[in-house]
Design brief:
mainly alpha; elongated; 0% strand; 8 helices
């Protein structure tokens, strides 16, 4: 018993100092961590402020480069200001090339202005040739105006010949009016022959009226003939079954061999 007590005492003597040392070490670590955190808090706050300021400057630069109304040019450095000026000129040139009313010609160079003038003239000429609302004939040369007038006449003639509502008969010449009248007459004859609602029988002469009457009569006969045709499926089925039974009893009695067997009744069965 005494040796056991002595052993326990020895263990207590050895372990207690170690436990006390470990506890002190943990306390020191906690104190160091608190001190470090207290020291680093201002640094962290300053870093956040720097990042926020940089983000705002980048956003402002983007607004200025894209022409946003939120741009604050006072926050730009000289290099950024030069970059924004170049971007603004390029954006204005693109708007001028596309024909937008926001184009500022005062910002264009002489070469760019010539290019824009040429494009504007070509755009206007195309609008006049295709009968668009934006056409300004006062900007056309005499040759271009003559070509546009010829295109308008051709377009009106086609509209009149096809019965389009945009046709203006006042723009037709005497020969063109005759062509339009013939086309209208032929179109009406076709409508009457096909039974269309657009048919005007008062525009037909006596010969055309007879043609239309004959076509309508033939159409009526064809309609009646097709309406009276009935397919007798039971009768067809009975006939088909009788043919199959005869073929089973006598293989030679087939639709193709029936006449031949009737001609040779003495022919032996195979």
């Amino acid at each position: 018993m005494k040796p056991y007590i002595s052993l326990c005492g020895l263990c207590a003597i050895l372990v207690c100092p170690l436990f006390a040392q470990s506890t002190n070490h943990l306390k020191n670590l906690r104190s160091s961590a608190k001190a470090t955190a207290a020291c680093d808090s201002p640094v962290f706050a300053n870093s956040q402020e720097v990042q926020t300021a940089d983000s705002k400057r980048d956003q402002n630069l983007w607004d200025c480069l894209t022409g946003s109304v939120l741009c604050n040019s006072a926050l730009l450095n000289p290099s950024q200001k030069a970059q924004v000026v170049g971007s603004s000129r390029q954006r204005n040139l693109l708007e001028c090339l596309q024909g937008y009313p926001t184009c500022d010609r005062s910002s264009l160079s002489s070469k760019q202005a010539e290019q824009i003038d040429r494009l504007d003239h070509e755009r206007n000429l195309l609008a006049c040739e295709t009968d668009e609302i934006l056409c300004d004939k006062s900007l056309l040369t005499p040759a271009e105006a003559h070509n546009v007038t010829a295109l308008e006449q051709q377009r009106n003639l086609l509209e009149c010949e096809t019965g389009d509502t945009s046709c203006d008969p006042l723009l037709l010449t005497s020969s063109e009016f005759t062509r339009v009248d013939d086309a209208k007459h032929a179109r009406n004859l076709l409508a009457c022959k096909s039974g269309a609602d657009e048919c005007d029988p008062y525009l037909l002469d006596s010969g055309e009226a007879k043609q239309v009457a004959n076509v309508r009569g033939e159409r009526a006969l064809l309609h009646n003939a097709t309406a009276n045709i009935r397919c007798d499926f039971p009768a067809f089925s009975t006939t088909n079954d009788a043919t199959k039974n005869a073929a089973a009893e006598d293989p030679l009695v087939l639709p193709g061999n029936r006449n031949r067997r009737a001609d040779n009744p003495d022919q032996p069965q195979q």
